[in-house]
Amino acid sequence: MSERNEKWWPLAAVCLGNLMLLIDVTIVVTALPRMAEDLDAGLTDLQWVMDAYALALAALLMAAGAAGDIFGRRRVYVLGLAAFALSSLACALAPGAEVLIAARAVQGLAAAAMFATNAPLLAAAYSGRDRGVAFGVWGAVSGAASALGVLLGGVLTEYLAWPAIFLVNLPVSALTIALTWRYVPESRGGASAGVRVDWPGTVAFTLTAGTLTYGLIRGGEESWTDGLTLLSFTVAALALAMFVWVERRSAHPLLDLRLMRQPSFAALMVAGMVLTAAAFAHYAFTMLWLQDALGLSPVRAGLAVVPMAAAAFVVAGAGGRLLQRVPPWAAVSGGLLLIGVGVLAQTAISAGSSWTVLVPGLVVTGVGVGVAIPVLVSAALAAAPPERAGMASGAVNTFRQLGFALGVAVLGTIFGDRVAATGSFAAGLDRVYLVGGLAAVATSVVVAAVARTTGARPAPRPHPQVPTPAGASAR
User: Whole-prediction pTM value?
Assistant: First the structure.
């Protein structure tokens, strides 16, 4: 094969892996009702099926980026692909909800290794105009993952069975591993000799996020005064204190806490969390209403929520050049406002509603996602010192994943309580949309107020990032 024909194989290898890990966020959403039926799983189990993946991805993303800098990004990427394939097989063969949740956590760990290294691998493989083309294709493929995941999950669940949504990862992983070893060059961080993985910080952060999420889900299921609930919150507080103590003393911290002392940077981290929680965390509960209450098939339920992903994809692609003239904080604030308005519009739902009642709100939310997400990293980079650019980018991605996990936990508690009180899925969703929408609007105001008060440095060139449910550009 000629050198000219081989040039784009690294792009294919990276895009396949990125597409697979992003699809696995939304492909599960469509299959949740069938999983609940086959595995005799309750709402709490379904929350953990979503959260185990997101939590592991959030907790290990920055550590995986440092590991790639030290040991080689291609090596870490391939190890992630292999672990992703094995954990996908474990998900498909899971005899019960507990095994499925554990396998999903391993999937999230593997996805962190893949996610943290795929964009740096592209940057190392291409230069000049080819790099721009490569990141353009990478962004378009990633943007399509949201809609493709929902639809593919519906097709596989309806015409085969829900385990097929995981089994499809096996041949894709094998092909991607082969392409990566053959065509993708190895690369490391420029200062890899001095880089260390902050394992104590990683453990403390993981324990904080995991116990906090457990406490939120447990409190909603049992009681907020339940012993395990209170113990979880106590452990989370102690782990957070340990994380702060470790990071302040580490020569190579997972997160330089001095960044969080800057109001603009801290506000953007909150924005990343709330954006993902408000726009995407309700997907699981919306699917339960569409399939269990309205009786839609998995394919039709997937098609019902595609307008949001489609709007985000179109706006992000068409508005990229125009948004370069807008201050990043303004795009993030404006996008959050649109997300809030769109989610609040979905409170028009009632017991007698059809799926079409959601479409206007989904479209507006998708426009907000398309406006905010492509510049979220740029806004964080503008608020951070240049020497902390990589850390700032990784922090945005981590907080977005954490926002999804905490959003599923909080909104799931609200949904479950409301359904238990009224017996209506629609009433539960109405309350979920109300809380999510108000949170997005309030955060929009905070971001704008902080940015106008503190001022903003000129933004660097926009970081390649695309609208996906729980994804963002890599570290």
Answer: 0.84
